[in-house]
Amino acid sequence: MGFDRDLFLPVSREDMERRGWDSYDVLLITGDAYVDHPSFGPTIIGRVLEAQGYRVAILAQPDWHSAAPFQALGRPRLAVMISAGNLDSMVAHYTAARKRRHDDAYSPGRKAGLRPDHATVVYSNRVREAFGDIPIIIGGLEASLRRFAHYDYWEDKVRRSILFDAQANILTYGMGELASKEIISRLASGTPVDEITDVRGTCVAAAHPGVCAYPWVEVPSFEEVSSSKEAYARANMVEYNEHDPFVGKAILQKHGRQFLLVNPPARPLTMAEMDEVAELPYVREPHPMYDEMGGVPAIEEVRFSVTHNRGCFGACNFCSLAFHQGRVISCRSHQSVIREVKALTEHPSFKGYIHDVGGPSATFRRPSCQKQLKYGMCKNRACLAPEPCPNLDADHTDYMMLLRKLREIPKVKKVFIRSGIRFDYLMKDPSGEFFTDLIQHHISGQLKVAPEHCVAHTLDYMGKPHIEVYEKFREKYFKLNRRYGKDQYLVPYLISSHPGCTLEDAVQLAEWLNKQGHMPEQVQDFYPTPGTLATCMWYTGLDPRTMKPVFVPKTPHDKALQRALMQWRKPQNRALVMEALHKTGREDLIGYGKHCLIRPSKGQSFGAQGGKDSRPAAAKGKGAPAPRGGKKASGDPRKERFDGRHTVEKKNSPSTPKRKAGWAKPKPPVTKGTKGRKKR
Q1: Count of Cβ atoms closer than 10 Å to residue 141 Cβ
Q2: 540 and 592 in one domain?
């Protein structure tokens, strides 16, 4: 489908000439292909600046091997703004095993290699080569999460702030609309870039602490955190706690003779400002220059989706959202979302389905409590895990009413939620009415949730609720499905080899999965990405919240053992599973009982609970029993399918037997204060 290229921001000299431009103000460089959609950060900043009256051009995925491609549009009047794209470029390029990815959904035709490793740094240095002393502002996710001295998993070392490696003048972090407008406005008024040092949500280099305009705290220097893991952990916790727009202080971190000055975060956008940003004149499509290359696949996930909120107070320690978007919720008005959905219904490819009305966590449309708006987010406490805060406001009414309004729009057949929900937050909803609406109207065959593990102390390191909460949610989910005659799957996300997860814990997870009656087809190892508390644990071996040691499964073999346990039925994993069970003294899981993970090798004894009395009749004769986990008989009432790394389960329908012979009955839920809970 072709769109008029003049609807997009200019990408060439020819585009500018057609507009009658003899010059322009701001050059935006992005590591993603140019998709003019509000899910793409550089596009948002471009449209925001355009709305302020500035001439903005886009340079997408330039050839970085020389400076010449960066000069193709000419020198901008005010500044160059650089983003690696919607992902950290190293995450975009490499798996958790540090293996190169072979495709890139953010590039035309899914072609890999169209942006460099450490894209922000490479682009910025090329711009410095091309335009000399022009003001350079770096931003986006990569710059935001790497604003302090940080551990880089791919190089296995601590790198200094990306601001210094990029030779940039200013770094914007978090949601960059307010900071970008203020910076460009000051540059347009004639203020030298070196004097723009006090914008909230930005970082600059400073010669001395006196440059800072806010109350500040100093963290250990780059040199200290590079040589001391204790110093790294201490710094990381301060950086995390001060990321608060209401009470957060500026942070100073010395790098050699200079100071990194990180100003307090920008204030969250108001509802009116969120509406304004969302309703700028986006084309909502990839630029037509990609049509012959197969388009840009990333658009398919968001073309008929709506983002209604920002921020997340879920505080998962392996997630970087809290360090980027922050923990304070901003949301759009009902009227704004309705206008966007009505516009989507006029798209020629619209089939009646809104794929998602979401955000970081779809159900977050209000502050976690009213106190935070005055006193900020609590330090050293989480809103939801391991136990919900008594002050938690979990009322889902506003989100529920929004979805009901969207369902009534002409041409809309279904409104789905695909971005995931916090099941623990849902369980605290005082009315429970939203849960009913969710089951009846907003699940497209399956619902994604994230228990991540089943062992209490591992979940504590993850910042997740204990497994009893998930099991209660799961029970209610399938109960409501039966009540309303639905046949919908549940997709639990799981992580292998997270810091704090021992081999014994991995065995417990395998047991839990076995008793649930399902196994993930693929497993995602923990990925130490910049800006998370879990990455700090992985690098330092310390929990930055307590400074106590944390076991970290780091070696490839340690990871392989844990991963194999989550896929114990696969024949290629048998040797690893056997090794893990022997190492942990869990030979009771080797045998023929319903609880057993694998059967013994020929001539091998097996656990007492899996003894000969529990062997299937076929095993006592000449014929060997069929391997566990093999192909199920047709008509299996306990259906199962798989989606990526996630296991997808479906509860027995009312018309089928409650359990299939050979499946273990689930254990009763562990109550508070019983074995399995770790006191902190």
Answers
A1: 26
A2: yes
**CB neighbour burial string for 201-240, b if at least 16 within 10 angstroms, e if fewer:** bbbbbbeeeeebeeebeebbbbebbbeebebbbbbbbbbb
Spatial neighbors of 629 by CB under 8 A, at least 6 apart, are: 519, 568, 569, 570
The separation between CA 205 and the C-alpha centre of its own chain, rounded to angstroms, equals 29
**Token pair in block for residue 265:** 């975060």
Residue 440: in which H helix or E strand, if any?
helix 433-441
Measured in whole angstroms, the distance separating CA 492 from the mean position of its chain's CA atoms is 15
Q: Residue 280 falls within a domain, yes or no?
A: no
> Which residues are registered as beta bridge partners of 261?
204, 252
3-state secondary structure of 170: strand
Domain count for the chain, please give it. 3
Q: Which domain holds residue 382?
A: 304-440
User: In the predicted model, what is the mean pLDDT of the chain?
Assistant: 89
Cβ burial, residue 280 (10 Å; 0-12/13-18/19+): middle
For 396-419, write each residue's pLDDT tens digit. Answer: 999 999 999 999 999 999 999 988
- Average of per-residue pLDDT across 80-102: 96
- Say yes or no: 452 and 434 in one domain: no
674 and 536 in one domain?
yes
**Other Cβ atoms within 10 Å of 287 Cβ, number:** 22
- CATH number of the domain within which 344 lies: 3.30.750.210
- The pTM of the full predicted model, rounded to 2 decimals, is 0.88
CB 28 within 8 A of CB 55: no
Cα–Cα distance, 126 to 141 (Å, whole number)? 20
Q: Residue 101: how many CB atoms within 10 A of its CB?
A: 13
- Phi-psi domain of 529 (left: phi exceeds 0; alpha: psi -120 through 50; beta: other): beta
Confidence band of 259 (pLDDT split at 50, 70, 90): very high
Q: Is 286 within 8 Å of 35 (Cβ atoms)?
A: yes
Residues 351-399 pLDDT 10s: 999 999 998 889 999 999 988 888 888 887 889 999 999 999 999 999 9
Residue 560, SS3? helix
Least confident of 3-7, 273-277, 581-585, 643-647: 643-647
Q: What are phi and psi of 150, to 5 degrees?
A: -145, 155
* 323 vs 566: CA distance, rounded Å: 30
Q: Check if the beta carbon of residue 73 is closer than 8 Å to that of residue 206.
A: no
Cβ atoms of 241 and 265 within 8 Å: the answer is no
Closest Cα to residue 384, out of 462, 475, 501, 471? 462
Q: Is residue 404 part of a domain?
A: yes
Indicate whether 82 and 193 sit together in one domain. Answer: yes
